[in-house]
Fold these 4 entries.
Entry 1:
Amino acid sequence: MRHYEMLVIINAELEDPKEEAEKVEEVLRGLGGEIVKTDVWGKKRLAYPIQKKAEGFYVLFDFKLDPTQTFELKRVLGLRGNIYRQMIILLDE
């Protein structure tokens, strides 16, 4: 398992964006990942509009996952309508 960091931008117009963040954690656990830390940054203004929205809810996930599961993670999160963007970065050991 490798150590990754993922930044997710969630729809800020949801009643409880933290609930969507918990669903992302469930997806990570379902893929065999181990969540080290979840850092909620909160609502921030976007640099450019995404889906005609000017604000997003930012959440940073620090986790360990098998490298073969990263493509599945991107695919599953891409299917979720309330997640605007996600970026996964491999951290140095």
Note: Strands lie at 2-11, 34-50, 53-65, 83-90.
Entry 2:
Amino acid sequence: MKKNKEILKICAKPFSDNVIFYDSEFSSLDPEKGDLLSVGMVKMNGDELYFELEHEGEVDPWVEKNVAPYLTGEKISIEEAFKRMKKFAGSKTPFLVSYVDNYDAVYLKKIIGQAKRNLFHWMSIDIASMFFALGRNPEDFGDADKNGEFKKLGIDWKQYREHHALDDAKLLREYYLKIFKNDD
């Protein structure tokens, strides 16, 4: 914690509060053959957006077992998804913050293409790298509180469904807010 406080003295607070916490679920880890299945977004103030997308292609066995059971909502088209994200993002071009954006950003681009610059900053924020810089193991977030990180911060992670895009985005927001609150 001492090292974290020293780092936070240098960067007293995040660059911007205009962020949207984001998670997605997709049909395959191979972006060439996979499709986005669901998107969850949460603003700093707690406003939420969640939708599931129409999908008729193959789904990897792991996704079928761990993600598909949560996909029980109405399915919408890519065009409708774009409209909802545009309305949710508003006119101030927020930053997207995801746990590890390697896949989330690639799949998001499949929906919004080059229009991303009109909705969100072109660069998404990889919060795992932020945690690494703060001296925290970025894998602890994604491993169901293996090292008690959530418990130490007072987060009841069991209230969130793992591998559900909205719940993952909500948990990410709560974790982010606790990190900066506890390290002040």
Note: The chain has one domain: 2-182.
Entry 3:
Amino acid sequence: MSTSRASQEKVIAVNRKAYHDYAVEETLEAGLVLTGSEIKSIRQGRLNLRDAYARIEDGEAWLLGMHISPYQQAGRLDQHAPDRPRKLLLHREEIRRLTQQTQAKGMTLVPLKLALRRGRAKVELGLARGKKLYDKRQSLAEREAQRDIERALKMKIRG
């Protein structure tokens, strides 16, 4: 009896701001190296992806700026630093390819969502290009127009 992949995944956090500030061109999944108190805090949903980004340094991928609140039940010695850099688990070929792509003008790696799959924390990274202010306004206007269309169709159906 096999269960679907979606049913085994529990989404903990989504970085909505990333879709507003960046045009995501490609996504990939990476594991995270965490301490015990960090994973327990993540299971409680006590993290923030808003200002997080990924960087590749010395052939290793790091997630920076992700805030994981301290775990309340952990002892004083077992606590973690909330904003420490966390290593991303990627294959060597993926890191090499991402290094080449992020060196292109305006490309960056941003975390889009963090999920738990079979007890392991997985982060979905987006290879993205920063949006200009007019791009943000345009996508906002398109979303508003789509809402108006859907609203009008609902009213027409109801009658």
Note: The radius of gyration is 19 Å.
Entry 4:
Amino acid sequence: MDQHRGKKTLGDLLAVMTALRHPETGCPWDQQQTFQTIAPYTIEEAYEVADAIERGNLVDLREELGDLLLQVVYHAEIARELKAFDFSEVASAITEKMIRRHPHVFGDESTRKAGVTEGFWERIKAEERTEKAAHHAASGTPAQSTPSASLLDDVPAALPALSRAVKLQSKAARVGFDWPDLAPVIAKMREELNELDEAVSSGDHSAIEDEFGDLLFVMANVARHLKIDPEASLRGTNAKFARRFRQIETWLSEQGRTPQQSNLEEMDALWDRAKLEEKSR
């Protein structure tokens, strides 16, 4: 049987990655990669997965999940070469974590009967942080890059800014640092919009940037109170904009013209037409 035929396994994928990274017979490009150079691709592939889900395309989702899995395998192979850890340790660690975080599923009978009690997740995660700190202390590596631990320390800095804003706010809300309902959040949004307007009037670019950031942060808070994912919401609006603009291009093309040969007033009217047609479907 042809060695390239038949359903491949995770073991095959791991072997392929090892071959690609082989210092003598591997791929020159793959040999040169590091954690740092691969990280952007890892983030990109996660977004590709989200996009396939958003579009409801399961064929694309299968492919994109494979691309994302490749990223995990890639990082694990680099770590194996450095004798830090390998893929089996990655799989073992996440399996142990899932079991540890779900004693109501995997625990003894009394624990399963107790179910998920108040403060359950926070207690388990606090225990994990304590264990991780002890591990770092034992291995001589720093557990924190800051002098003291903070409730916000485990919110990754590399998250998309809107997503990170929501996570930071959610963490603070757990200890009572939050508005009780949406009304004061909306009021804060209006306040930040006024402050942005004042900054724009001043012409101070640094102040404008700062106030714009404040407005985005409070908009993320509005989304959190409305139980909306701001990233997903904005992705939807981006798709809507692209769809309607393509329709404008199509209508202009039917007239033998391009957007460059049109003007704002005409394109705005076509935009309204596209919007109306979408709503009437």
Note: The mean pLDDT is 90.
